[in-house]
Structure formats: C-alpha cells, structure tokens
C-alpha cells in the first residue's frame, strides 16, 4: 500500500473524477483537497501544487451546479464578444489579459457569443436571470447603454470596456480617445495638413463622442478645418471605406489628413489615398491607433499610437474581481495614449 500523502501513481480512476478521487490518490482529506484547489493560502504551496497537478492529470472538473447551490457562486466570469471583435486580435488580446488576471484564483473565463441578429441586452439578461456567472464583461459601451442600466439596477457585478453617461458611477476600463484625437489632430496640423477627417464608429457608442470632441478641440486650436466622413463608419466594409476615400479625394476641398480609430479602417484609408494618387507621408498624412504588431508590416508611412488590449483585459479582470469581492470605489481605469512622434515629414 502507498504511504499516506503520496498519490497512487499509475492507478487510473474510474468514472468521473471527484474530490474523493483525488483524496484517495493523495491520502489527504477531502476538505484539504477542496482548499488546495481553491489556493487556500494557509496550505503549503507544495501541497497546493501537487493537488492541482493531479486534478489536471485525471481531468477533474468542479461540479458547478453543486457549487452554486452550496455557495451561491459559480466561479465563472462571462465575457460577451461579438464575432467581429476577433478582427485583428481584439478578442484574443482581451481574453489573454483577462485570463492572466484570473490566474491563481478559483475563477474561470467563459465566452458568451453575441450574434448579429441578437440584441446586446439579451445575453446579459440570460446570464443574470439564470445566475450563469458571478460577473460579466462586455465592450462597445453606448452613451446610455441599457446593459449597464440593467446591471446597475440588478446589483450584478460587471465591468464594461468603455463608458456611459448614466449618472451612477460604474466599473469600466477605457482608452482616452478624446486625448488621442486631440493630439493626432495637432500632429497632422504640424505636418501641414489643412483639413483632417475621420471614419467614426457607430454614433451610439460613447467613444464616438470622445473622438469628435478631441478633433473639434484640436482643429480649433490649430486653426484648421475638419470633417467627419459621411456615408461610412467603422462597421462599413473595407471596400466601402476605401471607395469613399477615393471619391472624396477627387472632390474640391478634400482632406489631406486622416485620423483612424482602428487598424482595419486605416488600411482601407491608406489604400484609398494611394489609389487617388497620394503619397502617404508627403501629400497626405495618416495617424492611427495600433493594437497589433502586424499593422506596421503593411504601412510604415502612417504614424501610430499604441492601444494595448492585453493590458485592458488585465484591468477588466482585476476590476471585476474587486467588484465581486464587494468593493464599490475606484473601479475604473482610463488608459492615456503615449505619443512618440517622429520628426515632421516635409510635404
């Protein structure tokens, strides 16, 4: 017989592994196994590591229904993602950051898809009413977002990627798009641009307002003109954005500077400017947010400002864990853009 405290190596458990299975393999009490799997700090790290290793080897998974009945908790964090949020790795980066923040906790991340024919509030309602998670994360916040209103009214832990205008403070992580647009406008003016333009996100999104405010302020201070692209937005097909830029470049008083709210729109705008006969960096200038290393492989002539979605994911996870734990103050983070402009390029 194996000595107490040592696993029965080579003995494969039959049926679905349970806490009792691991206890039999290690010689430890079931309560000790449970505490080790939950990283109880009073247990030795060696014990926790051994129990967690064996649990992984035999494929142990906690019974979430039983856990919910016993504690009222699921140990699940739900991230609501739209299919198009995977473009250029947004979803992957956010998931990476959230997962890092959940490391060494008892929480697991579950992706809840938001399909195109479903209202954004529906998966949120489903999660809350069926207690499918202990907290929820979502993006694309609107100025008066009904998801945020619903979650506040139901006192359900959440954090949004983006802000709203509801009078109550709510947990959020955001990028300072107003500051980005303001300094990008000043940068384009310094490069000799007389008129700047931007393809905006959907008008309901809060950061659309932030981008517009930043450009308006920057253009006013620099004494240049500005416009917001008509007929297309960030949800438009890249061909539609590209064709818009080509047509707009052929009309009088066309913009000679573009501020881009995403890498995808930047590539479409750069393609349109090139086809219209512009040389980016000389006869036209582009500033874009950059969230992946891939962008500069395509177009080094555009100037970029980094937006770190992995770090945003870390912050989202950290803030949600604090909210679940009962904290109510200081549950927000506004990332400031870091500008590293090169020397002005002569046009």
TrEMBL record:
Q: What is this protein called?
A: LacI family transcriptional regulator
- Name of one Pfam family that matches: Peripla_BP_3
Q: Using the record's annotation, list all stretches that form the HTH lacI-type domain.
A: 17-71
User: Which InterPro entries would you find in this protein's record?
Assistant: HTH_LacI (IPR000843), LacI/GalR-like_sensor (IPR046335), Lambda_DNA-bd_dom_sf (IPR010982), Peripla_BP_I (IPR028082)
Give the residue spans that cross the bilayer.
none
| Keywords in alphabetical order | DNA-binding, Transcription, Transcription regulation
Its domain of life reads Bacteria
**A GO molecular function held by the record:** DNA-binding transcription factor activity
Q: Which organism is it from?
A: Devosia riboflavina
């Amino acid at each position: 017989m194996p000595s107490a405290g040592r696993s029965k190596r080579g003995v494969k458990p039959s049926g679905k592994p349970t806490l009792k299975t691991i206890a039999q393999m290690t010689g430890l009490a079931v309560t000790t196994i449970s505490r080790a799997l939950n990283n109880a700090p009073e247990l030795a790290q060696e014990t926790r590591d051994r129990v967690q290793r064996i649990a992984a080897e035999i494929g142990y998974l906690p019974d979430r229904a039983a856990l919910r009945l016993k504690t009222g908790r699921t140990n699940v964090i739900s991230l609501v993602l739209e299919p198009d949020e995977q473009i250029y790795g947004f979803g992957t980066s956010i998931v990476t950051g959230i997962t890092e923040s959940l490391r060494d906790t008892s929480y697991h991340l579950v992706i809840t898809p938001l399909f195109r024919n479903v209202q954004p509030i529906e998966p949120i309602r489903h999660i809350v009413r069926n207690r499918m998670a202990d907290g929820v994360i979502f993006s694309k916040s609107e100025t008066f977002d009904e998801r945020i209103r619903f979650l506040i009214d139901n006192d359900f832990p959440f954090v949004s990627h983006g802000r709203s205008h509801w009078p109550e403070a709510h947990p959020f992580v955001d990028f300072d798009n107003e500051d980005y647009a303001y300094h990008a406008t000043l940068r384009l003016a310094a490069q000799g641009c007389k008129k700047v333009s931007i393809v905006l996100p959907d008008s309901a999104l809060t950061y659309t307002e932030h981008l517009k405010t930043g450009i308006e302020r920057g253009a006013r201070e620099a004494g240049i003109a500005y416009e917001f692209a008509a007929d297309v937005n960030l949800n438009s097909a890249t061909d539609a954005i590209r064709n818009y830029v080509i047509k707009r470049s052929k009309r009088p008083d066309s913009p000679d500077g573009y501020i881009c709210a995403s890498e995808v729109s930047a590539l479409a705008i750069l393609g349109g400017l090139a086809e219209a006969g512009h040389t980016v960096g000389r006869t036209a200038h582009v500033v874009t947010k950059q969230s992946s290393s891939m962008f500069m492989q395509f177009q080094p002539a555009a100037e970029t400002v980094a937006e770190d979605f992995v770090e945003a994911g870390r912050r989202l996870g950290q803030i949600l864990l604090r909210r679940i734990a009962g904290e109510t103050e200081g549950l927000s983070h506004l990332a400031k853009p870091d500008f590293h402009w090169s020397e002005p390029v002569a046009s």
